[in-house]
From TrEMBL:
MF-aspect GO terms: acyltransferase activity, transferring groups other than amino-acyl groups
Ranges where the N-acetyltransferase domain occurs: 1-168
Protein name (Swiss-Prot/TrEMBL): N-acetyltransferase domain-containing protein
Pfam family, one: Acetyltransf_1
Taxonomic lineage of the native organism: Bacteria, Bacillati, Bacillota, Clostridia, Eubacteriales
Amino acid sequence: MEYIEIETESLNMKLFSNFKRHQRVTKCWRKIEGKWCIKDIAFIDEWTEKEYAGLISCLKNTVLTGGMVLGAFCNNELKGFASVEPNLFGKNKEYLDLSSIHVSEDMRGEGIGKELFKQAKKWAKEHGAKKLYISAHSAVESQAFYKAMGCVEAEEYNKEHVEKEPCDCQLECLV
């Protein structure tokens, strides 16, 4: 596996041609009356061409504004990626946003997500953050990954993330 920062010119539909964003979800975490619990919530999360186009636009913006997009490549095919936004936020300006981290379905369980997360933390620290902020998918499997990476519920919620994805779990991780 080769980990490479991706530049804007490379961010296009062709880059994602062998990337499988597919997740069968059966259970999700929900905060009900101040307590976290697991609920039976079933759906399939799979990106459409329109969603890939939106993702590419967001990733290009991340790079153009000084953030980082890191790709995990196997035989020159994108198999995972992570992005960190460049602007510190929070009342103490200590957070940087891990805006995305995804591993292609065919390569999950190979340590790619762990390495991407580790490198995202390193980049965030080098750019002045004390914590990574993650608005994370609430699926049980996704949350298990973040917990294994040392994430905990965010002390300070980012209002924009909560409004955009109200079912996400708002997490943080020391860098």
